[in-house]
Task: structure prediction
Amino acid sequence: MPYLDHIQECNGFDPQRFRPFVIEGQPVGWIKPDMALRLSAFPGTFRVEDDQVGLSSTLATAEARTEAVGKAMQALAGQGVLQPLRGEMYPVMTDWGMPELLRIDRSAVHALGVLAVGVHLNGYVGRGPDQKLWIARRARDKAVAPGKLDHLVAGGQPAGLGLMENVIKECAEEADIPQALAQQAKATSAVRYCFENEQGLRNDLIFCYDLECPADFKPHPADGEVEAFELWPIAKVQETVLETRDFKFNVPLVLIDFMIRHGHITAENEKDYLGLIKGLRA
Result:
C-alpha cells in the first residue's frame, strides 16, 4: 500500500454530505443530515436549518453552551445514538489556538464534526539506517482499532491541559515512562486529516513529538490500553506501512512524517514525495 494511499484514505471528506455547524457565525464543525434531524428534537439548544446547524441565540456564553449541549448529548447517548459519554471534555473552537466556544464530551466530537486534537509520540533509538522505533500493540478490548499497531504513546487532547502536559501524562499512563524522560520529548510537526465515518466526521489535528530513548530503556504497559511494546528496525516499520494495514488508521501518517524528517523518505527514493508533504497538512 503506497504511502500516499494511507494519506488519501484519511482525507475522504465530502462537504456536500454534511451541514456546517456554526456558532456566533463561525463554522466549527460538520453534521450529517440524520444527526441534524436528531438535534432538532432539542429546539432550546440547537437551531437546525436546511443549510446549517447553529445554537440558540439565548446561549450567549461558553458555559451556557457547554451545559445545554451537554444535556442534549447525554440524552442522545441514553437513546443509543451516541456511544456512552466518557466524562472527558474537548474544546470546540474554529481552529487550534482560537477561543473556546464551548466544551463537549469526547463521545460527541465526531457526531458534531468538530476539531479533535491529539498528541502522538515517536519513541526512537539511534539515527540513520539503523534507527529503531518503539511500536505498541493496542489492547484487544479497545473500542477503536483493537489489536492494531500504534505509536509508543498517543492520546486525545482534553480541554484545560497543555500539549506537553498531556504528553507527559500519556507517557506515564500508557507506557510507564518516567517524567524526567518524557520531558525530553521534542515538538516536531503537525498532521491534519478529515474523513467521514459511521459516527460522523473525523476532523483531526495531531501534534507530533519525538523522544530519543536511551538504549537500555524499555516501556511497560501501565493502564491496560496497550498489550505490549516492541522495538522495531526502521526498515520493518517501512515495510509494514507499505505492505499491510496493521497500524491504526492514522498512525502511518505520523510515521510518514517522522520518516521524512529523519531522512528515510526523500525526494530521491519516493516519487510521491511532494504529495506526501502536501497531504500531511491537508
The first helix runs from residue 3 to 9. The chain has nine helices and 13 strands.
